Amino acid sequence: MSISENINNDLKSAMKAHDKIALTVIRMVKTDLMNEKIKLGHDLSEDEELTVISREVKQHKESIDDFKSANRDDLVSAQEAEMKVLEKYAPKQLSKDEVDKIVSETIKSVGASNMSDFGKVMGAVMPKLKGKADGSIVNQSVKGYLK
């Protein structure tokens, strides 16, 4: 079953259960997917759908961090509740060890040896990890290996 089909089924379930949080998040995701479809001018592939969902997850994580730093616990709990719904559709995130392994292999294959090769390594590793790992974690891992 595709992501869009899952979202449509979950939308129906959330409507029947009167789950306002899930309804809000699912409608937001559907809107984002539709906007991306219009922007690209074709039906979205599963990778493109995952990119949209990953973007939403990242935005929610950033909002949670911002609200925590502003001591807005009411907004933090609301964002975390929405994140639980979003994570159902997001791809499984790789662990730090898995990211490190992929980064290490990529550095060897690219032939990088110092920080001046950072851009080359990031350009090669990010397509492999797109949607599967947070960019900041990949960034830290690459910097750790190249130092």
Automatic annotation (TrEMBL):
Under SUPFAM superfamilies, the record lists: GatB/YqeY motif
The identity of this protein, by name, is GatB/YqeY domain-containing protein
The record ties this protein, via PANTHER family, to: ALTERED INHERITANCE OF MITOCHONDRIA PROTEIN 41, MITOCHONDRIAL (PTHR28055:SF1)
Question: Could you name the domain of life of the organism this protein comes from?
Answer: Bacteria
What Gene3D superfamilies does the entry give?
1.10.10.410, Uncharacterised protein YqeY/AIM41 PF09424, N-terminal domain
Query: Which Pfam family, giving just one, matches this sequence?
Result: YqeY
